[in-house]
């Protein structure tokens, strides 16, 4: 049905009024209810079915104009026979088209989503047409967007626990100082092997945080114990801790590497899907292992020197005197 909107506007008739009068003429409406001792019956008023399919009956339908006159509906609308869709799907009150796809064997949803996005860009659709994922792909995207937040929360929780354990705000920073190099190594490994940072890769990063901080804890905890019990300086304590704890660190790191190696190689029927997890763990462990024994002791010495400087300096007295002077003024 094509509505002459210009003519309808001149008569003060809106499209919504035309829709309502069409529904009143051709639709069904409950006008009353009959009650009996045992049941109730709805009274439905509707047009005789033989007239519902006759387009010529449209001339019998009238609509009130703005001045109260009855206007035949045929003067405002006409029925045009044409080929069109049986139904029009809508999403968010906008016309939409659903394109479904199934995954081939050996491919995961993380592989399909970038390919679909690339295909959409290749269509060069106008700006008025947008696309979005639904179903499993949408669930994957929503869960993937929250993984970065989970990674940050994992670091914060570890920092709080370490702060409570060592009763210090400084030593957790020393322990977590190896995380940037580990994450850099994991991302570099994924890039070298042309593997995307999917959900499994993020799980590998979270696992990497726990393994890398464990190596730093083995060094820092031993160094602090030497400072307390043997009254050794920071240089002597961290040097001896690195030498003594080198073998346990290497053993635990190699054990984790060997355990993640089959996953990194993609062994198994669905090994290709989990390959990014193994690559992230192996790459992060290799880089962190090479740099932790150098970065962690240096940061430990710098932070210990900063603690001693703050402890021995008279900055507290200076702040107190400054506040007293301002209070007097």
From TrEMBL:
InterPro entries: AcrB_DN_DC_subdom, Acrflvin-R
Recorded GO MF terms: xenobiotic transmembrane transporter activity
Keyword set, alphabetical order: Membrane, Transmembrane, Transmembrane helix
Gene3D superfamilies for the chain: Multidrug efflux transporter AcrB pore domain (3.30.70.1440), Multidrug efflux transporter AcrB TolC docking domain, DN and DC subdomains (3.30.2090.10), Multidrug efflux transporter AcrB transmembrane domain (1.20.1640.10)
Transmembrane segments: 147-166, 173-193, 199-224, 244-265, 277-303
Cellular compartments per GO CC: plasma membrane
PANTHER family xrefs: MULTIDRUG RESISTANCE PROTEIN MDTB, PTHR32063
Protein name in the entry: AcrB/AcrD/AcrF family protein
Organism: Rickettsia felis str. Pedreira
């Amino acid at each position: 049905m094509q509505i002459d909107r210009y003519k309808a506007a001149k008569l003060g008739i809106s499209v919504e009024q035309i829709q309502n009068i069409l529904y009143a003429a051709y639709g069904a409406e409950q006008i009353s209810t009959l009650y009996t001792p045992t049941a109730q019956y709805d009274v439905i008023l509707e047009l005789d079915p033989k007239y519902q399919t006759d387009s010529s009956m449209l001339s019998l339908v009238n609509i009130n104009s703005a001045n109260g006159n009855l206007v035949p509906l045929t003067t405002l609308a006409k029925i045009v026979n044409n080929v069109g869709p049986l139904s029009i799907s809508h999403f968010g009150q906008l016309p939409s088209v659903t394109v479904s796809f199934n995954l081939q064997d050996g491919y995961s949803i993380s592989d399909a989503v970038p390919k679909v996005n690339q295909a959409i860009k290749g269509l060069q659709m106008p700006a008025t047409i947008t696309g979005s994922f639904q179903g499993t792909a949408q669930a994957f995207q929503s869960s993937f967007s929250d993984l970065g937040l989970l990674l940050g929360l994992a670091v914060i929780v570890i920092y709080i626990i370490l702060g409570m354990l060592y009763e210090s705000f400084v030593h957790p920073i020393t322990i977590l100082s190896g995380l940037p190099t580990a994450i850099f190594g994991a991302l570099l490994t994924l890039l070298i092997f042309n593997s995307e940072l999917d959900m499994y890769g993020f799980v590998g990063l979270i696992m990497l945080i726990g393994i890398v901080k464990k190596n730093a804890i083995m060094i820092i905890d031993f160094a602090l114990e030497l400072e307390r019990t043997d009254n050794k300086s920071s240089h002597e304590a961290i040097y001896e801790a690195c030498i003594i704890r080198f073998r346990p660190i290497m053993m635990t790191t190699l054990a984790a590497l060997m355990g993640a190696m089959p996953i990194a190689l993609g062994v198994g029927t669905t090994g290709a899907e989990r390959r990014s997890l193994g690559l992230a763990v192996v790459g992060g462990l290799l880089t962190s292992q090479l740099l932790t024994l150098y970065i962690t002791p240096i940061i430990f010495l710098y932070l210990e020197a900063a603690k001693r400087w703050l402890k021995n300096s008279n900055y507290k007295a200076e702040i107190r005197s400054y506040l007293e002077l301002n209070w007097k003024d």
